[in-house]
Design goal:
This protein is an alpha+beta fold. Helix 2 runs parallel beside helix 4 and helix 3 packs across helix 5. It has one domain: 3-Layer(aba) Sandwich (L-fuculose-1-phosphate Aldolase), CATH 3.40.225. Strand 7 and strand 8 form a beta hairpin. It has an eight-stranded mixed β-sheet with strand order 3-2-1-4-8-7-6-5, sandwiched between helices. The chain is built from five helices and eight strands; from the N terminus they run αβββαβαββαββα. Bound molecules: zinc ion. Zinc ion (ZN) binds next to loops.
C-alpha cells in the first residue's frame, strides 16, 4: 500500500506548520503530545508525528505514515508515537481528518478534579461556540478516561467515550485529545478548549469549590 508523493508532501507540510504553531504556545513540553492528519479513508492511512522528538524543530524525520493498526506503511527507522492507536480510533469513530494531543497543566488539573464525575462540565461560555455548538444555555460534557498504562486498553476505553457532539476526550492526569474536520478546525477546537480549561481552573481555585456553575 502506498500513497502519492504529492499527498505525502502536503500532509507533512500541514502537520509541520501546525506543530510549530502549537509549540509556540508551549503545548508540547518535554517532547510530549502528538499530531496526526488523515490522508486516506478506505483503508485508513494517516500521517503522525514520530515519538520523542522536539516539536519546536522541523527535520525530515518528524513524520511517518501509518495504517489503522498504527503500523508504518513503508520501511522507516522512525517510531510512531506510542499513542498512535488512539488517533486511529478517533478517525474510525468520527468524521475527523486531524487529531491533536497535548499535555497541559490546565487539562491535567481538570481531568483530576472532575475524574470521579466522569466528565468536565462546561456551561454558558461564549467559547463553546468555537466548537460549533450553537445553543442557548449550552452545556457540554468533556469525557474523562482513566490513564491506563496499557496503550491498547487506553485506546479501547477512549473509543467508548467518543461522542459526535464534543470533539474531545480527556485522559486523567495525562492530557487531551481533540479533533476536527481539518487542521484549521482541530486547532480552533483545541484553542477553545484550553481557553475554557484555564478559565475553569482559575474559577475553581478562586471559589475553592468545584460547584462553579
Ligand atoms: Zn500523551
Amino acid at each position: 500500500m502506498d500513497i502519492l508523493f504529492e499527498e505525502k508532501q502536503k500532509a507533512v507540510q500541514a502537520l509541520n506548520d501546525l506543530k510549530i504553531e502549537l509549540h509556540k504556545k508551549g503545548w508540547f513540553p518535554a517532547t510530549s503530545g502528538n499530531l496526526s492528519l488523515k490522508v486516506r479513508n478506505n483503508p485508513l492511512i494517516f500521517a503522525v508525528t514520530s515519538s520523542g522528538k522536539d516539536k519546536g524543530k522541523v527535520t525530515h524525520e518528524d513524520i511517518l505514515f501509518v495504517d489503522k493498526d498504527a503500523k508504518p506503511i513503508q520501511q522507516t527507522n522512525l517510531k510512531p508515537s506510542a499513542e498512535t492507536k488512539i488517533h486511529s480510533k478517533i478517525y474510525q469513530n468520527t468524521d475527523a481528518s486531524c487529531v491533536i494531543h497535548i499535555h497541559t497543566v490546565n487539562n491535567n488539573f481538570l481531568s483530576e478534579v472532575f475524574f470521579e464525575k466522569g466528565y468536565v462540565p462546561i456551561k454558558d461560555l461564549e467559547m463553546i461556540k468555537a466548537l460549533d455548538i450553537w445553543e442557548e444555555n449550552a452545556y457540554i460534557k468533556i469525557p474523562i478516561v482513566k490513564n491506563f498504562f496499557d496503550l491498547d486498553t487506553l485506546a479501547q476505553e477512549t473509543e467508548k467515550v467518543i461522542t459526535k457532539k464534543v470533539p474531545a476526550v480527556l485522559i486523567r492526569n495525562h492530557g487531551v485529545y481533540v479533533w476536527g474536520k481539518n487542521e484549521f478546525e482541530a486547532k480552533r477546537h483545541v484553542e477553545a478548549l484550553e481557553f475554557m480549561f484555564e478559565y475553569m481552573k482559575n474559577l475553581i481555585l478562586f471559589k475553592g469549590s468545584l460547584n462553579i456553575w
